[in-house]
Design goal:
The protein has 118 residues and is α+β, with helices and mostly antiparallel strands. The chain has one domain. Helix content is 35%, strand content 25%. It is built from 4 helices and 5 strands, in the order ββαβαββαα. A 5-stranded antiparallel beta sheet has the order 3-1-2-5-4. β4 and β5 form a beta hairpin. The protein starts with 21 loop residues before the first strand and ends with a helix.
């Protein structure tokens, strides 16, 4: 992990256990989005630029329980699933909403991101 995350005591009020910290990222390539997770923000971006050099990084956001968060996001996007962790919206207005909402999460505050996600 690139830095130490400190859990807020308020997390328990929202039923969030401060375990499994990591990042959810969204990449764009052409008309598709990739939604994935990683323990290391820097390492994943480095890897992504080797197998997809033309990708645009939409965001990389910290979350507690990042494996579950990724799963919930991907379940919610099933309608737009293309292949593996790739999604294609084919002009659906949901894409614009999703991108704006994802970008509104903090780049550094794992506690507020985790609470805001629920």
């Amino acid at each position: 992990m690139s830095h130490e995350f400190v859990p807020s005591r308020a997390l328990s009020f929202f039923g969030i256990a401060p375990v499994d910290p990591g990042y959810i990222y969204v990449l764009s390539a052409g008309n598709r989005l990739k939604i994935g997770r990683s323990k290391s923000k820097e390492a994943r971006l480095r890897q992504a630029r080797t197998w997809l050099p033309e990708c645009e990084v939409i965001g990389v956001k910290p979350f507690w329980n990042h494996r579950d968060t990724e799963k919930y996001l991907q379940f919610g996007m099933t309608r737009f699933w293309f292949k593996d962790e790739w999604y294609e919206f084919e002009g659906d207005e949901f894409e614009e909403w999703f991108l704006a909402e994802f970008q509104s999460f903090s780049d550094t505050d794992i506690n507020s991101d985790s609470v805001d996600f629920i």
